[in-house]
Give the backbone structure.
Amino acid sequence: MAGNTSKSVHDHTTDLRIPIEEDRGVLIGVLALQGDVEKHVEMIEKCGARAIKVRFIDELDIIDGLIIPGGESTTVGKLMARFGIDKKIVERASAGMPIFGTCTGMILLAKEIVGSDQHRLGLMDSKVLRNAFGRQVDSFEADLDIECVGCPLVRAVFIRAPYALEVGSDVQVLATCENRIVLFRQGNLLAAAFHPELTNDCRVHQYFIGMAKEWLESRSS
Ligand code: GLN
């Protein structure tokens, strides 16, 4: 009993030590409707940022950036529409909130998905092909030269991965694999065909967290 009481007093004191505004730090949401959520949360925390799993519309109001993880794009698309979360993501994206779509996330961010009318956010000026590296290579790894994160090369894990066949003129291509576009950015939106959460290399997440920090700073200045 006594132990419990003193612990709660201690926690209370710690919570009040620094005003929330001053100790806010960047908060990254991971869309948690389906797919590889946990590994992204771990990676964000490893980078020194805070993470929350986003399941409800209101949670999109408190984050500084959103990761849409790998999974199954038709399922995530349907769930987003069912809960109305898709409209809110589009609204937050137009307000400037950074969004990072990995694999399924990259598909959902695209304006055009070859041969599919599946539900999507359609925010990026990109035309993507699902399961694009061929059935025989469901999963593979490759070393990518990603200039914006520096040396050495980034080991990238591809799982039934898409790539972008075309991107618009205001889209910056950040990496290719076998001459296919696999990492690209359009303003506050970032898309990767691979799974940066599945290695120990934090640099791609750090790059995205940098985008979220910039947005946070631009709002507080
Ligand atoms: N092929 C999956 C899809 O279309 C994506 C795979 C993944 O996210 N690893 O959604």
